[in-house]
């Protein structure tokens, strides 16, 4: 479709131009602060409120790839599309916020990778910092940035007939210039503005979609009449037991694979900017606030972009066919539904979301690459200005790799599944490194590199055999949800065996880490040396924290399901779900206040 441009109205053009001018002006406004040093440029001076970091993290996670990837999935699933992101993020974010945010922020690190210097022997720490920095800067950030840019292309092509090159020429220079000048503080503040634009744009498209069908009742009736006999599951709010794309087992595997172990590493491949969000907040309490605000704002925004895509299946049923590029559905909706002016708002919203994610990824990837690779291994005794300059060079390098992803990937969901499967392999080890004194450096290495090896054996080798037409290769290819659980289980068994059958790390190292981090869990061998700490394992706070996280997660699920039911005109059931959600959020708030008070007292009395 490239080159067959849709005619822009004057109003649409001026809305987009005004947005670009505003973003450049905002970046120049923050230039002086950002140039004040590494902490200013990469952590916003550690003065960012928790709620603002939460909104900013949502902006980083919810870019056009949400509208394209999730929107495309919504076409072939239905009302239960919300479980794709609820199972992936919901419980994980609450577990990380309740169990770990307080402890990460209290360590006051510059990058979360410095944790390994505190927890393990120097050789293990060096290997882990180097490996995770390289993985983050050269794999995770280019991959997530690349699919964000690809998503923008998939929206702009059906909406305006723009080619990939034309879309990238519109977005990439402004995005790079913005983060180049503004640093992290400018990124966070712009994220708030960009999120506001995105929400307004998504609301506008949702409104016109409902109007197209004559309201929720008529829309639900039309979907029922169209798919009620062939695909009745399209109106379900819970994944069916049997579904070709997203059955209940996939949701459960997604939730287990992304939740168990989450939070113990603040630079996971599925959400690598978390460490930056935590360490830039003003206090440990506000680090927890960041996670809660992220969960609520992200899921509401994802609903706004996925629910209209479910309804779009009626307009373009061919998108449900195997092999169809259904990731273009949101751009097709924009072109079909929006009048002049509204189109400009939503295009600005998509550009805003793209720029926020690109800027976040470049800033974080450069921070890790400069601090944990360049300064740690190559040039270790230069001034702040030198490292700031190299950080900007690193951003250019990461952006170049991201553009390679754009031109070598077809489907966004494939990249997302690949990245999350790879990260899930070692997740349980991230809890062990905080909660179990016996988890040593060899176990850490086994978890990180053994997980990658099992991933290759279970996921990549069968695909390679099929590619080379090996007759029995197809029999080894499992559904991605079983692959995730198998790799995760094998990796966990490996590092447990290694931890139990190798020597523990030195006493002094473990004692110093325990005194500095004051972790929960099984540290009795070292905790009893401190007269203020009881000998028994400090596990009750872990159990209490998990219960609180589950309450917060269930409250969020009910909020999302209730809003989904309202979209499809199930008002009585939706109202009951929203009421139950409000009650659980109240319980969560009361419980988390007590829990934080306990952690603060424990820290003072340690």
Q: Which labels suit this protein?
A:
globular; 606 residues; single chain; 0% strand
Plain-language structure description:
Helices cover about 75% and strands about 0% of the residues. The protein is mainly α. The longest helix is centred in the first third of the chain and has 50 residues, at about 165-215. The chain starts with 9 loop residues before the first helix and ends with a helix. It is a multi-pass membrane protein. This is Na+/proline symporter.
Number of strands: 0
Give the proportion of residues in helices. over 70%
Main sheet attributes: strand count, strand direction, barrel closure: none
> Can you tell me the overall shape?
globular
Low-confidence stretches are: 1-7, 531-536
Order of helices and strands: HHHHHHHHHHHHHHHHHHHHHHHHH
Radius of gyration of CA atoms, rounded to a whole number:
24 Å
Strand content: under 5%
Average pLDDT taken over every residue: 82
Helix count from the secondary structure assignment:
25
Kindly name the structural category. Answer: mainly alpha
Family: Belongs to the sodium:solute symporter (SSF) (TC 2.A.21) family.
Keywords: Membrane, Transmembrane, Transmembrane helix
Transmembrane segments: 12-30, 91-110, 130-153, 165-182, 188-210, 288-317, 337-359, 387-409, 449-468, 480-501, 542-564, 570-588
InterPro entries: Na/Glc_symporter_sf, Na/solute_symporter
């Amino acid at each position: 479709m490239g080159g067959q441009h849709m005619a822009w109205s004057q109003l649409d053009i001026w809305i987009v131009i005004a947005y670009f001018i505003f973003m450049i002006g905002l970046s120049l406004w923050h230039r002086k602060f950002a140039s004040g040093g590494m902490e200013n440029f990469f952590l916003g001076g550690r003065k960012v409120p928790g709620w603002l970091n939460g909104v900013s993290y949502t902006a980083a996670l919810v870019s056009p790839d949400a509208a394209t990837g999730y929107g495309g999935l919504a076409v072939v699933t239905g009302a239960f599309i919300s479980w794709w992101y609820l199972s992936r993020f919901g419980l994980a974010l609450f577990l990380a916020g309740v169990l770990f945010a307080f402890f990460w922020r209290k360590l006051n690190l510059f990058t979360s990778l410095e944790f390994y210097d505190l927890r393990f022997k120097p050789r293990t720490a060096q290997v882990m910092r180097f490996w995770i920095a390289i993985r983050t800067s050269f794999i995770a950030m280019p991959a997530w940035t690349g699919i964000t840019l690809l998503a923008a292309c998939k929206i702009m092509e059906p909406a305006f007939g723009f080619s990939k090159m034309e879309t990238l020429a519109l977005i990439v220079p402004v995005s790079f210039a913005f983060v180049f000048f503004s640093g992290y503080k400018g990124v966070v503040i712009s994220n708030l503005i960009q999120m506001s634009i995105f929400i307004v744009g998504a609301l506008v498209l949702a409104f016109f979609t409902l109007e197209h069908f004559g309201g929720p009742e008529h829309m639900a009736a039309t979907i029922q009449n169209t798919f009620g006999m062939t695909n009745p599951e399209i109106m379900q709010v819970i994944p069916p037991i049997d579904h070709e794309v997203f059955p209940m087992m996939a949701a459960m595997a997604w939730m287990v694979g992304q939740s168990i172990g989450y939070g113990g590493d603040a630079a996971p491949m599925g959400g690598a900017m978390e460490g930056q969000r935590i360490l830039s907040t003003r206090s440990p309490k506000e680090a927890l606030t960041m996670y809660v605000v992220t969960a609520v704002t992200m899921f509401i925004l994802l609903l706004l972009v996925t629910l209209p895509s479910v309804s779009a299946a009626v307009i373009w049923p061919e998108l449900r066919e195997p092999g169809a590029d259904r990731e273009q559905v949101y751009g097709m909706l924009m072109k079909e539904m929006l009048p002049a002016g509204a189109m400009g708002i939503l295009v600005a919203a998509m550009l805003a979301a793209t720029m926020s994610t690109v800027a976040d990824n470049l800033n974080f990837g450069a921070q890790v690459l400069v601090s944990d690779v360049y300064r740690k291994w190559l040039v270790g005794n230069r001034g702040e200005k030198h490292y700031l300059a190299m950080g900007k060079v690193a951003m250019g390098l990461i952006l170049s790799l991201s553009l390679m992803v754009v031109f070598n990937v077809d489907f966004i969901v494939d990249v997302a599944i690949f990245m999350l499967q790879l990260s899930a392999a070692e997740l349980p080890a991230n809890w062990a490194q905080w909660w179990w004194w016996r988890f040593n450096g060899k176990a850490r290495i086994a978890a990180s590199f053994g997980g990658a090896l099992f991933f290759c054996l279970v996921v990549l080798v069968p695909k390679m055999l099929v590619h080379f037409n090996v007759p029995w290769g197809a029999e080894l290819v499992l559904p991605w949800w079983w692959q995730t659980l198998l790799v995760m289980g094998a990796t966990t068994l490996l590092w447990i065996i290694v931890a139990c059958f190798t020597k523990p790390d030195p006493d002094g190292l473990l004692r110093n880490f325990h005194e500095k981090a004051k972790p929960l869990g099984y540290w009795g061998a070292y905790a009893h040396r401190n007269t203020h700490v009881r000998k028994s394992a400090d596990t009750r706070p872990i159990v209490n924290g998990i219960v609180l996280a589950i309450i917060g997660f269930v409250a969020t699920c009910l909020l999302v399901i209730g809003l989904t039911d309202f979209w499809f005109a199930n008002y009585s059931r939706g109202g009951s779900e929203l009421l139950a959600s409000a009650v659980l959020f109240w319980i969560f708030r009361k419980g988390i206040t007590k829990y934080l008070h306990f952690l603060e007292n424990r820290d003072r009395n340690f």
